Amino acid sequence: VALAGPDAVVVGAGVIGLTTAVCLAETGLRVTVVTAEPPERTTSMAAGAMVGPVFLRRSDPGGTREHATFDEFVRLATIPNTGVRISTGRFAAKTDGPDAPPIHQPTDVVALGPDELPAPFTSGFRAIVPCVDMPQYLDYLRRRFTNAGGAIALHRLGSLAEAASLAPLVANCPGVGARELVPDPSVRPVRGQQVIVENPGLDSFFIEAPFGPSWTSFFPFGGHVVLGGIAVPDDWSVEPDLEIADEILARCVAAEPRLAGARVIGHRVGLRPARPEVRLEVQELEGTRIVHDYGHGGGGVTMSWGCAREASALLTGTAP
Ligand SMILES: Cc1cc2nc3c(=O)[nH]c(=O)nc-3n(C[C@H](O)[C@H](O)[C@H](O)COP(=O)(O)OP(=O)(O)OC[C@H]3O[C@@H](n4cnc5c(N)ncnc54)[C@H](O)[C@@H]3O)c2cc1C
User: What is the value of pTM for the model shown?
Assistant: First the structure.
């Protein structure tokens, strides 16, 4: 593949790669994104997606990455056609006490009583967070990147050394692909699946927390609603499982009867790139400076801007 010339290469066109690519291209560098799959076939496309709260505290001590991202999404919600909107919704748990959802949102939260929650949920809170329609948002990031002069090349890299041969600066954002590409055996897929239905008139989201292997969540975006959710470790299948889809639908209908009979218009599957903690660090390889930025598990959207700015600063040697 002929890719001579860029100042920087970004591996991956998911939310982590594209956000990093935007940050680098907007500093004036010539940037090429090299990706095995286009943005519409990434895990990022399958995200819900809610910005926060993050459950990966080890990857974000002090919450700086999450807070930087939250603020940026609040700003993006004021710009037309980004796919970002500020939404009100309920976080609900079936238990009180230590298993109840953590409250660490920077916005106001209001505790809810059982009468404001569908059975069997007994505790929770109402909060305001940015919600992201991922197909529209990834399209926005791609436009913003190409408007800044960036290019996207479809190519599956065989090794980190191959990436290093393409440019003096590399941001490595391959999601679950890091397991083979780096290689990093601590990266594992956690399969997720969502059902997309026509919106019967919902205007606020609902999410069960904390997450187990399966839970109830629905996020309305204008004409459609994204229903979840499941988390299946070490499952690499990216085909929708229709039995799982039926179970997701049934759980969501139990929590929100208006979803009964809503027309199913699609299915999305994504492999969360799980890792004990996010890897965001520099490696020098054959004269190339590589910044790794992968392993965001179920919180990649929520940390995307904080991590992208850090990665970009580490690569270019500037303060974030
Ligand atoms: C159902 C579901 C719901 C979710 N909901 C939320 C949410 O509400 N909030 C939140 O913050 N997060 C959520 N997540 C998690 C979030 O989607 C991920 O953390 C995030 O998408 C990871 O982004 P990424 O860019 O690292 O990976 P990906 O989106 O997987 O992108 C990786 C990119 O690297 C490329 N690549 C891989 N290997 C190679 C190679 N060898 N050569 C070239 N290119 C390569 C791929 O083609 C792809 O373009 C959810 C995930 C799922 C599955």
Answer: 0.95
